[in-house]
Design a protein that fits this description.
Largest sheet: 13 strands, antiparallel
Order of helices and strands: HEEEEEEEEEEEEEEEEEEEEEEEEE
Strand content: over 45%
CATH class: Mainly Beta
Radius of gyration: 21 Å
Distance between the termini: 52 Å
Number of helices: 1
Helix content: under 10%
Shape: globular
Length: 371
């Protein structure tokens, strides 16, 4: 009987050695996610310090009892300062930089609140390697054993967020078995994990007034060491939660002339979690209107349309309409201005879903920042 136990052990060892042999590294020694990931959760919702760049990114729409409406963004970044960086500790260190962005869009009053933070390893910023648990100052993002996610943050002196997010459906992975290619170069890739629909309950304190809110959100977690190819300058990204409980994710990777890279992707997510990936030849992205930022002078395509065929072959034409224009994070600390805005999705003039759109690289190329 003993040889029967040896065979699985040998198979496991060989699988490990094969995966190890497929690992690739950047010229300066950071691991590249070129092999198919073998995710184990909750561990892989946490940090991966052998990769250079990692982020956890949440966008959502909030609705108050008085029918006021808000959009919000919360992003936690980890950036390794040297290869083979340790996981970090509660002591001041020099192996990771932690950046975080928070934003709240007050739709009714068209006011945009935002703040950026930048801290190194230490008691004021950390990220667990065992689960989704991170902190940057008094901002925190923590997932419990039942997969509920608590987000606590402030924005300057005007805003406090205390939100609990619970998955309405399981997480999904984009790309080929979770490996998302972003360009022709070996290093232009990421591991890509997403919760496409999270139910939210909590509160917003705005100018000393507490407002109970409910809503829905989208969450991305990407693990990489070099997101872009040399010819790419930025991206347009869109997430949509349709009223029929399906979702859509789109990213258009742009070259210097504004053309989409062949690795751009549109992904439909069915109500039961089935993914359909499509390339740039399968959809049409049309700019309807631009907005020029008075702060960065960036000229963003804030209103667009998206058309093509759904996975069932039926045609669609979606109107992506910002809830107001001035939703730009101006990059005071990170040095990169970008537009991140709450939008409605219209079809034939009727609202059919809620969305968030991100527009980057309209002020300067991101290629040097994400390589």
């Amino acid at each position: 009987m003993k040889p029967l136990f040896i065979i699985p052990a040998i198979t496991t060892i060989l699988s490990f050695l094969t995966a190890w042999s497929e690992m690739s590294y950047t010229e300066d020694g950071y691991r590249i996610p070129t092999e198919y990931p073998s995710f184990v959760f909750p561990r892989d919702h946490g940090s991966h310090p052998d990769f250079r760049i990692e982020w956890w990114y949440i966008t959502g729409h909030l609705h108050a009892d008085n029918e006021d409406r808000y959009g919000f963004q919360a992003t936690f970044f980890r950036y390794a300062l040297k290869p083979n960086a340790a996981a970090g500790s509660n002591q001041f260190g020099d192996e990771h930089i932690y950046m975080a962005h928070m934003a709240l869009s007050d739709i009714k009053r068209e006011v945009f609140y935002h703040e950026e933070r930048l801290n190194r390893d230490g008691w004021d910023a950390f990220c667990s390697t065992e689960k989704m648990e991170m902190q940057n100052g008094n901002w925190s993002l923590i997932q419990d054993a039942e997969d509920r996610i608590d987000l606590i943050s402030t924005i300057q002196e005007e805003v406090q967020l205390d939100l609990t997010l619970e998955p309405a459906q399981p997480h999904v992975t984009f790309g080929d078995k979770g490996l998302s290619k972003k360009g022709s170069e070996t290093s232009a890739c990421s591991w890509y994990i997403t919760y496409p629909r999270l139910q939210i309950i909590g509160s917003v304190v705005l100018n000393n007034k507490k407002i109970n809110v409910k809503g829905e959100a989208w969450m991305d977690h990407e693990i990489s060491s070099s997101q872009l190819s040399k010819t790419q300058v930025g991206w347009d990204w869109l997430s949509v939660r349709f009223d029929d409980q399906t979702e859509l994710m789109l990213y258009i990777l742009r070259d210097e002339d504004g053309n989409p890279d062949p690795h751009s992707k549109l992904v439909w997510i069915s109500a039961d979690g089935e993914l359909t990936h499509m390339g740039p030849d399968d959809f049409k992205w049309t700019i309807l209107r631009r907005w020029e930022s008075p702060d960065s002078q960036s000229n963003y395509p804030v209103e667009t349309s998206l058309s093509g065929l759904r996975p069932d072959g039926s045609p669609y034409q979606l109107h992506i309409k910002p809830l107001f224009d001035e939703q730009e994070l101006t990059g005071e600390l990170g040095g990169i201005a970008y537009w991140e805005g709450a939008c409605d999705i219209l079809e034939n003039g009727d609202p059919v879903g809620e969305a968030y759109m991100e527009l980057t690289g309209y002020n300067e190329s991101l290629e040097s920042q994400l390589r």
